[in-house]
Amino acid sequence: MGRATSASATLASLAMIVPFVLLSGCMGLASDDSSGFDLNVEADSQYGVILTSYEDGMQKSSSIPVITFDFSESANYGHGSSFGVVPGDGREPITTDSVDATEIAVEFTFHGLYSVTAFGIDQDGHRVDQVIEVMIEQHIDWYENDTGTPEEFIFDSTPGNEGPIPSHFLLNSTVQNPSIIDFDGRDVDVRWDVVNQEGVCQTAGENIGNGDTGFWKTLHFGPLSVHEIHLIIEDGQDRVNVHHSLEIRYSGSD
Questions:
Q1: Which secondary structure element, helix H or strand E, spans residue 23, and what is its range?
Q2: Mean pLDDT taken over the chain
Q3: What pLDDT, in 10s, does the model give residues 108-121?
Q4: What does pTM read for this prediction?
Q5: Helices and strands per DSSP (H, E), number in the chain
Q6: Domains of the chain by range and CATH?
C-alpha cells in the first residue's frame, strides 16, 4: 500500500508540472516573436531655427524647420508594417505604411526641446520605439523705418511643449538717427526697456547724434512667458530707423 500510494503521488506531481512547463514555453515563444522587428531611425538634423521677420509691426515672412525621420535602415518589416513619429508637442502621431514610404517629415512651428518618439509597428502589431532629441530655436527680426513713436516688440519665450524653458534670449538692437538735412539734424535720447510680467527687468539709454547709430546688446537668462521690448524716444524730434534682432536659445546651443 505504501509503495502504491507513493507512486500515485509522484504521477500526480508530474501531471501538474508538465502543463506548467509547456505553458511557460509557449509564453516564451510569443515574447521572442515580438522582438523580430529591428527599428533603426535617422533624423536628417536634430536642430532647427524658426525665422520670422516683421516690418512696421506687420509680419513679412516666416520659415519653419522641417526635420525628416528616415526609417529605411530598419529590418524585418514588411507588408502590413507601419512607421510613425510622435512630435512631442501634443500633436497626434504622424504615420505611414511601410509600403508607401520610409520617411516622415515633421514641421516644428514653436521653439523648444522636443523628445520625439519614432516608432515602428510590425505586421503582428508589435511596436518598437526610438526617442530622438530635437532642439528648435527662434530668430526674430523687427524693423521700423522713419518712426517717431517706435512700437512695442512683443514675443513669447514659452516653449511649444511642456519642456524646459529657454536658456536665454539674446537681443541686438540698432537705432539709426539718419541725417536728412545736415544743418537741421538733431540728437535723440533713446531708452530701451525689457519688460516681463513683473515689470521692467532690464533698461539702457543712449544719446544718438545726428547721422549716428546707437547699439544695445543684452542677454536675458531663463526667460519665461511673454516679453516686450520698448524703445522710447525721450528727447529730440528726429525720426529713427530701428532693427531689433532677437534669438531665443536653449542649453547646448552656441
A1: helix 2-33
A2: 86
A3: 999 999 999 999 99
A4: 0.82
A5: 1, 16
A6: 42-136 (2.60.40.10), 138-249 (2.60.120)
